[in-house]
Amino acid sequence: MLPTKNVVLRFPPVASNSSSESGSGSGSRGMDVADQAEETYQLLELPPEILKQVESLKGKEKEAGGGGVFPLTIKGRPSDDAVLCTPTTTFQLRTVGISNSLLVCRTSQSSSASSSSSSSSSKAKAKAKTTPNSVTATSTDGNRPTLELRDTCHQILECVPIAANLERIRTVLRDSAWEGIGSEHSSLRKRKRGSAAQKGEKGTRKGRTWTREQLASVIQASEAELNRGLKDRNVVEVEGRMVLLPPKPLKELLVLLLSLLTIHHTSASTPNVASARTIIDALKDEHDVPPSLCRPVLNLFGKLTIDPEINMNVGEQSAAETEPEWQADVEAMVKQVGNGLLIGLKDRRSDEFVEEWKNEVGEMWADKVDLRLLEGEHLLTPPPATLSSFTSPSPLITHFPLSQLPLNPAQRFADLFLTRPRWRPEEIIPFLRGLTRDGDTKERDKLVQKFVRVVKEKDGTASWYPRRTG
Hints:
The protein has helices at about 15-20, 25-35, 50-65, 110-115, 120-130, 170-175, 185-190, 210-220, 225-230, 245-265, 275-285, 290-300, 315-320, 330-340, 350-360, 385-390, 410-420, 425-430, 440-450, and strands at about 10, 45, 75, 85, 90-105, 145-160, 235-240, 240-245, 265, 270-275, 300-305, 325-330, 350, 380, 395-400, 450-455, 460-465.
C-alpha cells in the first residue's frame, strides 16, 4: 500500500566497480545488489470467485488464530498452456496487455536503515557523495519515505475458467493398463528394467507406471476434478501405482462381482450388500484376482464400511463383530458391463444388444439395464427399410465413445457434423461434455450459438445443423 504522503521513487541499485574491488564483504554485497537489480515480476489478476475464497479463509484464520494458506497451483508440461488450479476449479492463464504501466515497488532498505539510526544515516550520506548510484536518501529528501522501483509491467495474467483436461488420464495410463483376469500377475507386479516381464505377448514393451502424485503433476485439473476424472475413467490405486481398468477386461470382472453379489448378499431387503471378505476371498481363490486389486475395485463400485485389513489383526470373536460389508453401486456396475459390450459394436439391433446386456448382468439385476446409462458412448440409427417392413422396428446401435472426440470445440463440432449432418439436441448434448465446466450451461450455449444452426422442423421439434462459414 502506498503512503498517504508523497514518496521518493528511485531506480534499483547498481553494483559499482569500486564496491566489487574493495574486499570480500563489499564484493558480496555488490553481487547481492546486482541480483536485486535483475528482478522481474508477472502480475496475476484473481477473479472474484478465487478472491472470495481467499478472503473467507483469512476471516477463518483470524477467528481460529491459525496460519492456513489457500492453495493455488500452476500445472502443465513445458509444451502445455499453463493453467491455475484451486482445490476445486481450473483456470486458463491468459496474457492481457494493459494501457497503463504498473510499477512494482518496495521499501528501500537503505531508507529504512537511515530512519532507524542517525549515525548510520550520516555514514550513508557520506557514501552517497562518492557513489552516485546509491539509493540512500540524501539531505534534500528530508523524512519522506523512499521506494525502489523493481519492475515495470505492461501486461497481466488473466484467469479464465475452463474444463479440466481429464482425457490425458487415459493417454498417460493406457500403456500400463490392467490386462484382465488371468494376466493380473504380469500386469500388476513390479517389473525389473530390461526383464522379459516388461514385454507383452507380442514383445512390445509395457509403459511406465505412475504414482498418484506423478499423475497429478501432469493432469491439468484441480484435486476435486482429478478425483472425479479418475473415478469416471475407472482408475484405481494398486500398491501405490495408478492402474487403468479398460472396458472389456473390467466387464469380465464386474460380471463376476454381480454373480457373487447375487449369491452372497446379506438379505433380501439389502440385495446390494454383501460381506467384503467373502467377495474378496472368492475372487482370490476361484479366479486368481489378488486382494490388492479387489479392494480398490470394491471401493470404486461401492463403499466398504470397514477396511478388510482390520480383520487380519483381530481375534475371531472381534473379527465377527467387525466383519466389513460391501455396499455395491449396482447401477454403476451394470453401466460398465454395457460399456464393455459396446466396444467395437457397429450397426447391431439395439433390442438384441439390450437382451445380451441383461443376460450378462444376470436376472437379479436385469431391471437396471437401460440404454440411457450409456449416453455419450453410442449412436442409435433407424433400421433399414427392408428390416422394419417385416419386423417391429428396432434402431441400430453403434459404438461412438465421447473419449475419442477432440477437446477443441471447433474440431469437436466438425467431427460430430461429419458423423451426422443433422442432430436432435438431446442426442448431441451428451457428446459436448468436457468442452465446458460441468453444469456450466451458459458457456455450452455460447458454443452452440457459435457452431450450430438451429432449424425448426415441420413437426415442431428443433434440429441442429452445422453453421455455415465464409
